[in-house]
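for the writeup, i need someone to sanity check this before i put it in the appendix. the sequnce is what the collaborator sent (i think, or maybe the updated version? ugh). structure was predicted straight from it, no edits. if anything looks off just tell me and ill rerun, i have time this weekend
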Amino acid sequence: MKTALITGATDGVGRVVARRLGAQGWRLLVHGRSQERGEALVREIEGAGGKATFLEADLASLAAVRRLADAVKQQTDRLELLINNAGIGTAGDRPGRQESADGHELRFAVNYLAGFLLTHLLLPLVKTAAPARIVNVSSAGQEAIDFGDVMLTRGYSGSRAYRQSKLAQILFTVDLAEELKGAGVIANCLHPSTYMNTTMVKQSGNSPLSSVETGADAILQLAVSPKLDGRSGLYFNVMNESRANPQAYDAKARASLRKLSLELTGIKSARR
């Protein structure tokens, strides 16, 4: 039985993806912050004949991300699929600039840095399971990273913070694809759909324009479709291959982000 870890699986599009993978016979490790919602999802998946385990963690803390990785390793020694889906939206620019438990700008920390650290900690399990896949759930909302003020201490807005964090995910994906060449692991990212009917969209004050089912279709294409076999480092706009913000294809920008991310997370690069 293949094993998948989905972060942010207890709500929104992550919940739909988890249910569908469970129905396809995957063993699921479902992450979220709410024990109640997590246990309810596990009961739903198992009630439909699937297999699931809930893992709780608040990704606003790098220590919690490390504990999550340890919990995953206690559950399995191989991971055929990692979907970095957890994230926070703009919240309509309220309540202003916030920081993570580690003192980093909150959206950069949760939407990007947590996934960066978790992915690196779990790469041995993913490589062991090759052929395997990594899917980073990003957004069409992207803004070039200001390396002079990554934490947005000046000119902060929730939308700017969100767009920067989502582009960081894409830079990471392109970088990761190069790092994993020849390892039997592909890494791709996507904008799943615009303004899905999720809690995040409602909190931002926007009206839903699409459904979580549409977003789940897009995520599952990158997760399981044979059309993606051997194809890596790509950005999809829903179901179609597309181009991200130009910064994603700037090797110097990716190197700057990688260096900063390794420093902030305290992990050592696999590269020499």
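DSSP finds eight helices and eight strands in the chain. The mean pLDDT is 93.
thx in advance!!
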